Known about the structure:
By secondary structure, this protein is mostly helical. It has helices at about 1-40, 45-95, 95-105.
Amino acid sequence: xxxxxxxxxxxxxxxxxxxxxxxxxxxxxxxxxxxxxxxxxxxxxxxxxxxxxxxxxxxxxxxxxxxxxxxxxxxxxxxxxxxxxxxxxxxxxxxxxxxxxxxxxxxxx
Length: 109
């Protein structure tokens, strides 16, 4: 598609830039995932193992394309929803429910 916009030579530059940014993005995500997972799951010392497992999972889903992403989303979306519910409920517990949350709002000072 880039060939229609940038021509034959320009599409090569666009492809190199796109590929480079995607490799950089994956590198940053793979590096940050063990830190987040480690702090939440108390496995900070096993950061390399989490990083390797996440890399393998990303590679496997990339090999299978959209069908692979479909199966990952069947697992991850319910987990994300459960995490969101848990975070909101824990946050409301800490401030004393909705009434405590509305009293501690900065707009009501």
